[in-house]
Amino acid sequence: MEVPVVWRGRRVHAFVPQLLADRDLSLDHQAASRCGAAGTSVDRGAEALPDDYAPLARLLLRAEGVASSYIEGVAAPVVDVILAEHAGPGGHTPAAWVAANLAATEQAIVHAGGTERLTVEELCRWHAALMAGSPTPAQHVGRLREEQGWIGGTSPLDAHLVTPPPGELAGLLEDLVVFVNDAGISRSAVDPIAAAAIAHAQFEVIHPFADGNGRIGRVLVSWLLTRRLRLLTPPPVSVHLAADVGGYTAGLTQYRFGQTSAWVTWFADAVSGAGRAQSELVGAVDRIRAGWQTKLAAHGRARALRADAAAWRVLALLPRHLVLTAPVVSEALGVTGKAAREALRTLADVGVLTAYDSASGTIGSPGRGRPARLYVSEELLGLAGSSPLRR
């Protein structure tokens, strides 16, 4: 429904969505079928993860964070994002903001793996984590907005959508968290994929924060899929949303106008693609690793490289560490700085890693805060989201 609000002496109408508790959430046959297919795709992606899933989970989460930020126009070289992750919160750069998106997603996944119910306070904690890398004023970080919001345009007067007044936010969000907590256990249980689609769209309409709503809405998708499907790590749904931003925006608009099945159908197809992408990523990493072994083995035969040489042990650090430096290798493997440098040079010589030197600009332009020399696997960087439009 629309409610009148006053904006700087002018009357406008804000949209207040119907409570989910009161909304008809029944789906047509096509939407229900697509949700079933999406659930199967996600299950297969989860089953593809090896027992030592943590490094691959990190790759998937980084791809999710990079793509989710890309949708909002926030982008940075993956190398700089990874370095910003190591640096921790702080720094108002695009890379720091993308890294903060990853941190917020990780925080949500940890919460989803537990048993505590989702609360509005937890949503605010995610927002605080996300905004740690942003220039957003402190009074707007980790708390609900106290001013009128809008989407599109320069003010509510020419906006695409005038979002609910601040006084409506508490009730709308309480309704939302009740839905995501209980959607799978009530008599009228909602399919997990459909629940994620509905919760995300409802959150987008509520727009409870001064900034970062889209990204927190997609973090909510990761939380809900992880909790409802009991996943170790969620599929990178944002990668597929980023590949069709027009369809994504149109679907959210359909939801707002009551076309729930149309939106859920579109969203379910995106989740299906994300599940397939997860399976493909596992296979791609296996092939990349096999190639590394072949290259280093050939080099070892030619140079009489010992089987326990540090170069072999560095391979085990990938893909957990997408950016390597001699100090990182030295600390991780307990070897001298000289041995670490030799191992990295060996892997660069055989084509496993690419060396980056600030003076020569081997990989793009030097970024502020980058070490003088670092090594990356270009193959893994591609999987980590160097191209958010990659399907």
From TrEMBL:
InterPro entries (UniProt xref): Fido, Fido-like_dom_sf, Fido_containing
Superkingdom in the source lineage:
Bacteria
Report if keyword Ion transport is assigned.
Answer: no
The residues that the entry says bind ATP are D211, G212, N213, G214, R215, I216, G217, R218
- The entry's keywords: ATP-binding, Nucleotide-binding
> What residue stretches are annotated with the Fido domain?
118-269
Residues of the active site: H207
Q: Name one GO molecular function term.
A: ATP binding
SUPFAM superfamilies linked to this entry: Fic-like
The protein here is known as Fido domain-containing protein
Q: Which organism is it from?
A: Blastococcus saxobsidens (strain DD2)
- Supply the source organism's classification: Bacteria, Bacillati, Actinomycetota, Actinomycetes, Geodermatophilales
